[in-house]
C-alpha cells in the first residue's frame, strides 16, 4: 500500500471505513499485546477483519472468544457466522452445544 503506484503512498493519513474504530484499535492492540477484549458484536467484526488480513492466529483467538460467549439466544446466529466464514470448528462447537441443550 505504501509502495509503487498506490495512492496511499503519498497520503499522511489513510482512512478506512470498512470496520469501526474500536475494531481497528482492538486489531492493533492484539498485534502488540496479544489481548482481545471486545463485546460479541465487535468480536465478530474483528474476526472478519482478521480473515481479510489473513491473520490466522487472531482468527483462532477470536473463535475461542466467540465460543466463550455462545448462549442459547445467539447460537443460531453464530452458527450462520461460522457457515459464512467457513469455520467448521465453530460450527461443530455450536452443533454440539445445541445437541447437549436439546
UniProtKB/TrEMBL annotation:
Domain BTB: 1-67
Listed Pfam families: BTB
Species this protein is from: Lasius platythorax
InterPro entries the UniProt entry points to: BTB/POZ_dom, SKP1/BTB/POZ_sf
Record's protein name: BTB domain-containing protein
